Amino acid sequence: QVQLVESGGGLVQAGGSLRLSCAASGLTFSSYAMGWFRRAPGKEREFVVAISKSGRSTVYADSVKGRFTISRDNAKNTVYLQMNTLKPEDTADYYCAAGPRYSPLEPDHWGQGTQVTVSS
User: Fold this and answer.
1) Fewest C-beta in 10 Å: which of 18, 27, 29, 42?
2) Cβ–Cβ under 8 Å, residues 49 and 61
């Protein structure tokens, strides 16, 4: 059974930082591209960032370029999202996802989500 378990969400002031983690199990982690999506209150889910199976390639949504950084550790079956210079508009539930390719990332598997709230 595939599980993607996110952690690291919370409440932070605007301009602050958070680091999300997603621990994967039940799949061959290095065979999957990984990424993050988010859903803000009252809005549709949107793509945030994805990383290739090897970790050598990434793609970011324009709204987070230069502020967010995705990375992965295939030895630990974990993907990370470092979020800096957070803005109130980054407030959302963040979901980890795994799929066959990183661009576009079309997930086969989803995590349960972790909430990020950025106060102004």
Assistant:
1) 42
2) yes
